[in-house]
Amino acid sequence: MRKLIAASAMLLAVTQVQAADECGKVTIADMNWSSATLIANVDKFILEHGYGCEAELVPGDTMPTGTSMIEKSEPDIAPEMWSNAMRDALDKGVAEKRLRFAGNSLSDGGEEGFWIPEYLVKEYPELATIEGVKKHAALFKHPEDRSKYAFYGCPAGWNCQISASNLFKALNLADVGFDLIDPGSGAGLSGSIAKAFAREEPWFGYYWAPTAVLGKYKMVKVDFGSGVDKEEYVKCTSSNECENPKVTMYPPSLVQTLTTEEFATRVPAAYEYVSKRSLTNKQLNTLLAWMEDNQADGEVAAEYFLTEHEDLWMPWVSADVAAKVKQALQ
């Protein structure tokens, strides 16, 4: 009888291990911006070839994906969730055991700021500070009005337009002759930077990371001398109702990997992988610049990353999984 019980226990244990190893179908949100689609494709390749999952990319965006994961438990994974955009709803989903925050997909968080070209700072080191920018305001010629100086803001209708406008006001940039220019679109904003770099001309304005622009062009984030006042940023700087904004640097934006609770409990090994999978802004900026220069989509960029940057992704997985992924790449 004891032998029978022991054999049954062993069989149960083996069955449980096999069940844990059977990944099954996994859906991954393929968000509609470059860094997110790159990470989604990396996840797809590693989960398919390293963990035996039947991985599928599904279209996604921050609000609809988060809402669907809370209400329908699908998709299974959102690789790059800018979670502050719907923080209360996501926290409630975690509290109700519907969701899990697996980890930070961007280890140093999304980065925003006012920037100038590095070549300009080498010529005028003071420009690394906002007081230096004000002192040398005349360098930043306005494209249409030579009596004013140019500050390129965030495009109209984008959330960052609010914070950039409030900080423009708080820093009293208009008092020294700056005009807040609406670039019209994201392409217009990045195009103004590309044009300045092509001619090695002065440029001053808002931008964010991770982006191909900050991977291709060496920029310096201007120091306001204020540090980060997160409470001020949340309550006033980022609010359209802010009447008296104060100076603060941008706090890092929390960028996380979000999974459903069902996925995390069903495939713990795969969940452990997405918990460890993380990149820095600098690493991602470089990859995005490669994508843009080579006109690569997410699938091509993922294979490039996995082939050329083993030092970055191999620590995320076991030696056995790494071997399977490397073999699939060949």
From TrEMBL:
Gene3D superfamilies: Dipeptide-binding Protein, Domain 3 (3.10.105.10), Glycine betaine-binding periplasmic protein, domain 2 (3.40.190.100). It holds the Pfam family OpuAC. The keyword DNA-binding does not apply. Residues 1-19 form the signal peptide. GO terms for molecular function: transmembrane transporter activity. Keywords: Signal. Transmembrane segments: none annotated. Residues 25-308 form the ABC-type glycine betaine transport system substrate-binding domain. The keyword Signal applies. It comes from the Bacteria. GO terms for cellular component: ATP-binding cassette (ABC) transporter complex. This is ABC transporter substrate-binding protein.
